[in-house]
Design brief:
The chain has about 160 residues and is α/β, with parallel strands linked by helices. It has four helices and six strands, in the order E-H-E-H-E-H-E-H-E-E.
Length: about 160
């Protein structure tokens, strides 16, 4: 069985004239991902592998999430190929995961995340919001063989008081 948690980067700052990959998080984005991580803490596995896009907003989201969720931020693997908005590219990267990994947490971008969770989960989600957390489980024992799984849990900032 494989478990996959997808987290969309938190709200990013569009006010500065920087390249997309260099956009930082807003103050509300920082607070939102911290709240989501606190809510997720009870279901996080300490033996997970953590991947993040190299975009500033995704990598900062991953670091904040790990700190609040009590995960080792030194375990984050930053991957250029996760800086994608295409669910097919995202799927290809996830299916490259080593089979000895049971639990993968990935920090990335939309529309790739929303489209991926709708293709592979059993619950339709109109849009995974910034700082949105989606936990999927698959019966398969090989990442390259994953197909329709179960959407176990979602945590979205607007649902948190």
């Amino acid at each position: 069985m494989k478990s996959l948690i997808l987290v969309r980067h938190s709200k990013s700052n569009w006010d500065l004239p920087v390249l997309d990959i260099h956009r930082s998080l807003t103050e509300s984005g920082i607070l939102n991902i911290q709240k989501v991580a606190v809510m997720a803490k009870e279901i996080l596995s300490s033996n997970c592998v953590i991947w993040s896009s190299t975009a500033v907003r995704a990598s900062h989201t991953a670091l904040l999430f790990c700190k609040q969720g009590l995960l080792d931020e030194n375990k984050i693997e930053f991957k250029d190929n996760l800086y994608t908005f295409d669910e097919n590219q995202l799927e290809k990267e996830i299916k490259k995961c080593e089979n000895n990994v049971e639990n993968l947490i990935l920090f990335g971008h939309n529309e790739a995340i929303t489209n991926f969770v709708n293709k592979f989960g059993d619950k339709y989600i109109t849009n995974v919001p910034t700082a949105g957390f989606v936990y999927l489980q698959f019966e398969q024992n090989s990442w390259k063989d994953i197909n329709k799984g179960k959407t176990i849990r979602t945590i979205f900032p607007k649902e948190i008081d």
